[in-house]
Amino acid sequence: LRQIDRKARQALTRRVDDIFPPSVPGSPVWLRPLPVSRNSRGQVAWNPYDCMTLQCLCPFFRGTMRDDGYCYLRNGRPLAIAYRKEYRMMTDDERERFHAAFNQLKFNGEYERFAREHQSVSQGGAHSGPGFLPWHREFIKRMEIALRLIDPTVALPYWDSVLDVYLPDPRDSIIFSPLFAGEIDMNGFVVNGPFAFWNTIEGRNTIWRTLSGEGGLFNEGQLSSVANEPNIEHVLSYTVPLAGCPIPHFWVGGDMRVPETSANDPIFYMHHSFVDLIFEIWRQRQQRKDVREWAYTSNLWSCGNEFHFSYAWMRPFDFLSNQDGLSNAYTDQLYRYAQRPTCSAQVPTCGSRQVLLKYLFCDFNHGFPHCVAKIKFGGICEGFDGMDACFNGQCIFGRCQQGPTPPVMNFTVI
């Protein structure tokens, strides 16, 4: 982090100088896009990535605005707010559409452009300072728009790594399987799954991960600490915002470890979608809505470089400052977050009362009931005997093996 800050200062010297489901016509008012003020940015744009409203995006989707105020696509369906679910909470169809859109972006070269864009700000206001959270909010918004221009039903899911940290070895999580982010070989190269053999911006023919070599994943205590932090200086900080966002970067390792290459890996975007969710939870809990758009840390040269100041250009995005990344329009108009997966004695399914999720299970044996990622074949399942912890299998002698899955435990609440 000191190296990033030092390089940013040198670069400046050289210059010399909910969270709720998507809205559709007929849905309750609280599920619809919220109105924006007339002087709000992004209501008209030449580039879809600069849009901040569905109305602005409508012509880029070749849609038509109707009298009811909604944009209707050529198939007759309304363009809805993106609904960001946890990666493992998506239906199989939603996940496959998401993977297909990502692969199309990779095929047409737009994915590389995003990766190089992130690489270009590795020593600027996008990392290690107050500009970090606003910059990445804008960046992943643009990626989500790129995905939706390919498939309007797609939203950028979030990777809740807390679900994996409970496992004896998080590397055994179903998320690192061919169904999700893919598996690595003995050299750390991603060799199966939807992102297998993706070339990288530095010329390698596969994404590289080291998994668990250093760092760690988020835990519930960290998230609770952030959500309950009243001081904005400790959230939009000049050191490590959110008390450790880079740590999962280090845990995934490989390309994800450093800013110059982290956007090679699609898991980067899902991780930052989760970071953005944590940020939004904090905003809604600790700030009034009229305060959220202007509250920023003091512009202190003694604490960080000028790239992080509120008025600084959010490069490389035209006409944006760091403070613009605090706009309410992101979640008022463009996307909402599904709640994080939870379970209880009454609803032990990590989904709903009707649907048993295939990729998560409810752990009643270790503290309060909480959702945990299922474990892939061969993974360590010690401590979860008798529970539905193994994907399409069961825990035998501490390892997940093929076999009938245990029944879901039901509890009678008295």
TrEMBL record:
The record's annotation in InterPro entries points to: Di-copper_centre_dom_sf, Tyrosinase/Hemocyanin, Tyrosinase_Cu-bd
- Keyword Metal-binding applies: yes
Q: Which GO terms describe its molecular function?
A: metal ion binding; oxidoreductase activity
Please name the Gene3D superfamilies in this protein's record.
Di-copper center containing domain from catechol oxidase (1.10.1280.10)
Tyrosinase copper-binding domain location is 265-276
Query: Would you say which domain of life the source belongs to?
Result: Eukaryota
Keyword terms: Copper, Metal-binding
A Pfam match is: Tyrosinase
Know the name of this protein? Answer: Tyrosinase copper-binding domain-containing protein
* Organism of provenance: Meloidogyne javanica
